[in-house]
Specification:
Layout: H1 2-19, H2 27-30, E1 40-45, H3 54-57, E2 61-62, E3 65-76, E4 80-81, H4 85-94, E5 98-104, H5 111-121, E6 132-134, H6 144-162, E7 167-171, H7 172-178, E8 189-192, E9 207-214, E10 223-228, H8 232-238
Helix pairs in contact: 5-6
């Protein structure tokens, strides 16, 4: 009896602190999950998808809806560029997808340094989606207020360059815990929330990354699936205009 009590306590502790606190990227526990309804489908890719066969991918569908947009990892921190970014970014436009580039926020360098690095390595064009800041971790050394100030620094620097509000990617519990401040209300949100049939985040959002277990022709292994919260016309209107 004591063994089962200890085991149960351990499982509850593990779920609360490691699974429940993030609520995403836990395919091992939840399985691949169902694909929710949505008209405007997209994916996001990085070097983890290895070499993509874009000729096959161009005709891919998710629940009979064509893949319309592709977010591509570009940079991380102040010195790392995704090894497949240049090829993926070029091919996405060549094969007719609406493309976007995202920067992964690092806790190891300042937001100002990271924004400068992103702008140095990424050249977004008219018709591309707004630049994306992927925020998943808060440095232990920063208070919530200082962390929010850092995130706003990156957003403001990049917005000054492209004259468009960058997209903020995060998972819904992280948003509620660290980014629930009205200074972020004007930014389009891309929310990660997996293995659920509907979005649990109650605030406004533009993109929903609903699984990391998608399968598509042209991509070996898993790929993240996304839904845009609006029409195709709205998606086009969100894209960068001449600047």
């Amino acid at each position: 009896m004591g063994v089962f009590l200890v085991l149960g306590t351990y499982v509850a502790f593990f779920y609360y602190f490691f699974v429940g606190s993030t609520d995403y990227r836990w395919r091992a526990l939840y399985g691949d999950g169902n694909i929710p309804d949505g008209d405007i489908r997209g994916i996001d890719v990085s070097h983890y998808q290895n070499v993509i066969d874009w000729e096959q991918l161009r005709n891919a569908t998710i629940k009979d809806a064509p893949v319309r947009f592709v977010f591509i990892k570009s940079t991380e921190g102040s010195s790392m560029i995704d090894e497949n970014f240049k090829e993926n970014f070029y091919q996405a436009r060549e094969y007719g997808f609406i493309r976007g580039a995202y920067h992964f926020y690092s806790t190891k360098s300042s937001a100002r340094e990271q924004a400068a690095f992103f702008l140095q390595k990424v050249r977004l064009e008219e018709g591309d989606l707004p630049p994306v800041l992927d925020v998943e971790y808060k440095p232990d050394t920063l208070s919530v207020e200082d962390f929010q100030r850092e995130i706003l620094t990156w957003l403001n620097i990049v917005e000054d360059k492209y004259h468009v509000k960058p997209i903020l990617y995060t998972y819904h519990k992280f948003k509620e815990k660290y980014l629930s401040d009205d200074r972020f209300d004007d930014y389009p949100y891309w929310i990660a929330h997996y293995y659920v049939s509907e979005m649990k985040y109650k605030g406004p959002w533009k993109f929903w990354q609903h699984t990391d277990a998608g399968r598509l022709p042209g991509i070996k292994g898993y790929v993240d699936f996304d839904i845009y919260n609006g029409s195709y016309y709205d998606l086009k209107q969100l894209c960068i205009k001449k600047f």
